[in-house]
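Here's a chain:
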Amino acid sequence: MSALPPKAEDSVFAVQSSIVIDAPVDKVWSVLLDFPAYSEWNAFVRSQTVVDSAEQPLEEQTVKEGSFLYLTANIPPSMDAKSRPSSTRLVVSHLDPENHRVAWTNRMPAWIMTTERWQWLTAPEDGKTKYETIEVFNGFLAYLVKWFVGSGLRQGFQAMADGLKAHSEQ
């Protein structure tokens, strides 16, 4: 895997989002990697948990390259606790704290679907932070994801960016 995000045009389907946040990059990075707090601010990814290979939550929730993740997401995004989230199993494929980049891939057989999600932060000179994210989908199931939940995923990515901004600016 490259140390750079994939290109949308090289996939069956891609979702992207970005936003400028009025907070220092280190604060935004801390919020982004504080998975246990996602339920407080993230209407899209309602929970993201570091787990072992048997999907049991680990006591230590610090993410590392190679960590397994269990994620639940509301599509469309909602803070409503009564929503029925979908779930997915992931593995952290890239973690670069120095350059504020994190990426993960799904754990499905490649012939069904591959996904690769990147999130990264940059710090312009004005003390603000730019958050960017992309997820690319490939394989047979990617077409179904595109047709059936593509719009909801786009809404979710924007809701996550908006939530990250609001929470980081507090």
The radius of gyration is 15 Å. The domain at 10-168 is CATH 3.30.530.20 (Alpha-D-Glucose-1,6-Bisphosphate; Chain A, domain 4).
